[in-house]
Design goal:
By secondary structure, the protein is α/β, with parallel strands linked by helices. The protein folds into 2 domains: about 40-80 and about 385-490, Aspartate Aminotransferase, domain 1; about 125-360, Type I PLP-dependent aspartate aminotransferase-like (Major domain) (Aspartate Aminotransferase, domain 2, 3-Layer(aba) Sandwich). About 45% of the residues lie in helices and about 10% in strands. The strands form 4 sheets. A 7-stranded mixed β-sheet has the order 2-8-7-6-5-3-4, sandwiched between helices. Strands 10-14-13 form a 3-stranded antiparallel β-sheet.
């Protein structure tokens, strides 16, 4: 009987071992997933949420609230939604409101047009590539912006720009050889995370901090040559205006980048979601498509450009609207792209409705026009003021330097840390700017993201902060930062 019992136990153990090899655990999970990192929602942000819970439970801290400046979530930072956009969403979500006369006439008309295109309910699936009338309006917007034609069939409406970026990058996965993607350093972690997930190789090129975070063509060439030693770089990713660095590329710099792609036969991915967010006098957003066509270089050129409802003056991050326009791709590739999008059953209809409001705004004479312009310009002027204030105030703190926040929604200041601070961080197994940002959070309640989460030139240390908190919070933020930084530098003085 005892022998039988032992045999049963051995069988159970063996079964469990076999099961451990087939079930999902940290040893069997896709190794590419384990390589994915996303600092914007990483350990410091997790700790910030824990501190918020502690404050709510009465735990005493040296501060009474956490000031989150870690992510470009406009409305979470207090930005009010644009009335026209929310009225259209409300009317489409609950059509009974349209018969009650609660909305301006142009809102009601817009809602009825949308509903006609989705069989009377935004709860229905749309076409996989997006509602045809909205794609046509996006095409009209691009034509008006750039002065060149846009074919609605080159457009796919997506759940924010992030899903468009992943849709395009997925096309470069190869079983024959490892594909590479050139990405800016510092970079937005969506790119590094997606490239890791897809088993591609990151080929980093450094933005020039000394030259306003611009892109130097010689640096692109260096990165490309280095990348070609270990992979086949096929695509160049650009973020303009920049995240996390806040730069705005000049017209001539864009021309140089396009010519580089032509010379090296690279596909260009242009992330242009911050195109409404330009603050520096003399700077202007130029789309890569416009510059490409100005150069008469579109023949044979392949590119994808992205836009989103999450940024700009709209700030509708949670409603997930976006699009990608592809240029120079043949019909076989169009079919493959559309097939991938079809496998997702298309994008959410509410996001498509918001995108239509962005590209087809109320016109002068429409019932909603005056309030729309007032709210839109109010947001953009406020962001402009905050961008200038953050830039000025950061550079008044000894030991911190920051390039001008020319565009987008972020500052990426450099913190000049002592060797003692760097060594102390190393002893903890941490990047020096991670240690700095964690201490900043614990002592002041300020939540920012260390530059190491975005990658950066070796030997430099930064953090990314948004300019989105209300001005009163920004003043508190920067006053606290100034005191903290002085004390931190004194603590770790050599």
């Amino acid at each position: 009987m005892l022998l039988c019992s032992r045999a049963i136990q051995r069988s159970i153990v063996q079964t469990r071992k076999a099961s451990a090899l087939t079930s999902l655990n940290i040893d069997t999970v896709n190794p590419l997933v384990k390589d994915v990192e996303y600092a914007v929602r990483g350990p410091i942000v997790i700790r910030a949420s824990e501190i918020e819970a502690e404050l709510a439970n009465g735990v005493k801290k040296p501060f009474d609230k956490v000031i989150k400046s870690n992510i470009g979530d406009c409305q979470a930072m207090g930005q009010k939604p644009i009335s026209f956009i929310r009225q259209v969403v409300a009317g489409c979500a609950h059509p009974e409101l349209l018969d009650m006369g609660v909305f301006p006439a142009d809102v009601t008309e817009r809602c009825r047009e949308f509903l006609d295109g989705v069989r009377g309910s935004i709860g229905c699936y749309s076409e996989s590539t997006g509602i045809a009338s909205i794609r046509k309006n996006v095409a009209n917007f691009i034509e008006s912006r750039d002065g060149y034609p846009c074919d609605p069939n080159n457009l796919i409406l997506t759940n924010g720009a992030s899903s468009s970026v992943k849709l395009i990058l997925e096309m470069f996965i190869s079983s024959k050889e490892k594909s590479g993607a050139l990405i800016p350093i510092p970079q937005y972690p969506l790119y590094s995370a997606t490239i890791s997930e897809f088993g591609m190789q990151q080929v980093g090129y450094y933005l020039s901090e000394e030259n306003d975070w611009s892109i130097n063509i010689s640096e692109l060439k260096r990165a490309l040559e280095e990348g070609r030693k270990t992979c086949n770089p096929r695509v160049l990713c650009i973020i303009n205006p920049g995240n996390p660095t806040g730069q705005v590329a000049s017209y001539n710099n864009i021309k140089e980048i396009i010519q580089f792609c032509i010379d090296e036969e690279l596909v260009l991915m242009a992330d242009e979601v911050y195109q409404d967010n330009v603050y520096r006098e003399g700077s202007k957003f130029h789309s890569f498509k416009k510059v490409l066509f100005d150069m008469n270089a579109e023949e044979g050129f392949q590119m994808a450009s992205f836009h989103s409802t999450s940024k700009g003056f709209m700030g509708e991050c949670g409603l997930r609207g976006g699009y990608v326009e592809v240029i120079g791709l043949d019909q076989d590739i169009h079919y493959q792209l559309n097939k991938l999008q079809s496998a997702q059953l298309g994008s959410n209809v509410v996001g498509q409705v918001v995108m239509d409001c962005v590209v087809n705004q109320p016109k002068k004479g429409d019932a909603s026009y005056d309030l729309f312009i007032q709210e839109k310009m109010g947001v953009l002027k406020s962001l402009d003021a905050r961008a200038k204030f953050v830039y000025k105030r950061l550079n008044e703190i000894e030991g911190i330097t920051c390039n001008e926040v020319a565009g987008a929604m972020y500052a990426f200041p450099r913190i000049h840390l002592s060797e003692k601070a760097i060594a102390a961080a190393a002893s903890l197994g941490q990047a020096a700017d991670f240690m700095y940002c964690l201490a900043l959070l614990e002592e002041t309640g300020i939540c920012v993201i260390p530059g190491s989460g975005f990658k950066q030139e070796p030997g430099t240390y930064h953090f990314r902060m948004t300019i989105l908190p209300p001005m009163d919070d920004l003043k508190v933020f920067l006053d606290k930062l100034s005191v903290f930084h002085t004390q931190f530098m004194e603590k770790y003085s050599d």
